[in-house]
Amino acid sequence: MATLRPLVKPKIIRERTKKFVLHQSDTYVKMNLNWQKSRGIYSRAGRRLRDQILMPSVDYGGNKKPTPSPEDTPNVSSKNSKANVERAAQLANRVTNLNARLCSEENE
């Protein structure tokens, strides 16, 4: 079953597009600019004080909505599990742990 897709793909708006740089890497030639988290307790950037370099976090993500994938858990009966898997197939969703509690008649 083919899924319906929108004609125009929505543009993902990023809050920040500049790269994060390593703290104090501009003062030393031997330090490269690639970002590493400053873990020292005396570091101003590591303590996230005001007016320091910005550090990556979840807040800088885009507006892309995550698509939840249903999981077939063991505490659901096999009848309901089978119905859930069929419904997910109709909605074109990928189910994790797909074969949970689905035993064939030959094994019993």
From TrEMBL:
UniProt keyword list: Ribonucleoprotein, Ribosomal protein
Pfam families: Ribosomal_L32e (PF01655)
Annotated region described as Disordered, given as residue ranges: 56-86
Biased composition (Polar residues): 70-83
GO biological process: translation
SMART domains xref list: Ribosomal_L32e (SM01393)
Name under which the protein is recorded: 60S ribosomal protein L32
Organism the protein comes from: Mustela putorius furo (European domestic ferret)
